[in-house]
Fold this sequence. Notes:
- By secondary structure, chain A is an alpha/beta fold.
- Chain A has twelve helices and 18 strands.
- Chain B has a five-stranded mixed sheet with strand order 1-2-4-3-10, covered by helices on one side. In chain B, strands 5-9-8-6-7 form a five-stranded parallel sheet.
- Chain A: This is MBL fold metallo-hydrolase.
Amino acid sequence: MEAAAGPNRMKAKELARIVLSKEELFILDVRNESDFNDWKIEGESIETLNIPYFDLLDGVEEAMDRIPAGKNLLVVCAKEGSSKFVAEQLFEAGRTDVHYLEGGMKSWSEHLEPVKIGDLKDGGSLYQFVRIGKGCLSYMAISDGEAAVIDTLRMTDVFAGFAAERGAKIKHTLDTHLHADHISGGRKLAEETGATYWLPPKDAGEVTFSFEKLEEGRDITVGNATIRIQPIYSPGHTIGSTSFIIDDRYLLTGDILFIESIGRPDLAGQAEDWTGDLRETLYKRYRDLPQDLTVLPAHFGKVAELGEGGRVMAKLSDLYRNNPGLNIQDEDAFRRTVTENLPPQPNAYREIRQTNMGKLTPDEAEQREMEIGPNRCAVHDR
Amino acid sequence: MPEIKANQTLDCKGLACPMPIVKTKKAMDQLEAGQVMEVQATDKGSLADIQGWARNTGHQYLGTVEEGNVLKHYLRKSSPNEARDEKKHPHVVSAEELQRKLAAGEKLTVLDVREPAEYAFGRIPGAVSIPLGELASRIHEWNRDDEIHIVCRTGNRSDLACQLLAEKGFTNVKNVEAGMYGWTGPTEKRLSKKGGTQDGGSGRTE
């Protein structure tokens, strides 16, 4: 409990709870305009105002006039210092219900919210880890004391802690593809826990470390041979992109198919070459799969895609009905959609790919800096 | 390679946001109009913030030089009369016309009367640097019938420079309308061996 002698700190976890439970919150974002326009905290019941802190050095009157009274108020900046500076002034000016975000957008970007997707047939569970601030999704399948983590994010201690709490040993870490928008924690988590790290070989031509090859027919088991992770070669976002079917029920699509969009083929510099692969995967390979599979992607684009409790999931048949990226019948129109007028590329995506290949070894602060901003892996992300 | 001269240097190394901007604001309040401040900071976020602050306050962000971990930001305090519309020197030349003349190899002098720090971050190739404040004492460097085109950021300081030279009997002096702001031709910069330079743009802050 904090005394009311100043503004209160709010942790990213509490902010995540507010966003997911759709509680009303007014956010005063005091970063500069370009950072704000690039990337901000979003939520259905979140209202946001951007006034850079450097416009508030002479007083907060201007801001006070524009913040509705009686609403829960959170001040946000990049790291924390400026939001605390502004929140203290707001407090002195009479806003006693003001908070500032501990660790700023940095913490928000790194916060992971674990949610349970469902039980597995022969016991065990599948969990999704929602990185709300950046739109990344990871998965952990646990069965009979063993766990596999798919598309592990850089915050490996979260996964290690989660498995330990459930008495499970992490045996496998798998990446659906070589990521371009965030730094994979797959190899690090495998090293820390003695697990095996799996990568699609066609994405791993330049990597500097050893790994197991994800190939069709090489099923991976977790627990007492209960969960079968079945790799399906599904190129398009990258040439090696591989999907997984877990327990004959869940289809983990990586960055090939999202809930409201489809993957972009240009982040490894070969948009034209991979467009055909992407179309083949989306319009043929996935078509031939059982349509009652539950699709679990590696990203979401907008908070509207977050379902109950933050879950991001949908039936494959529903996506064939509703996802615009699966409903472009003309091949030429499809090619244009995935190669022209794409959103800006993710921040530092070239350096991130090099890091995921083991060619660059940035320290934690540098990794954080590289990952700033939204993921922008889908063709419709704006 | 011209040196970037600053009237004051402010040490914000090791300070985290918001302190570099808080200190910069206080120091700029003490500075005289037209003077240049160098702000040394290690916080990477200070780059975008100092640009934003300058844009919103009307001070001129000149550019940033990176040396190791230190970012050196250069700012020029704008003077209130820069935007004032007063008596004008009657002979002007457009940026396009000057560009054409230079391309045709005409024998003329381009005189840049901005501060050396502004000059360092982007100038018309071959331009000679004499800040407005030093012009009166260096007037003897030219003949009264030399063709001289004078440029600054927006055309105001160069207008004053034209008037000064005209008073001293110079007969072939022209003001480059809209200054570097309107210049779309080639520019050259201070060459930096270590670290890079970041261009502050052509000064669209007024």
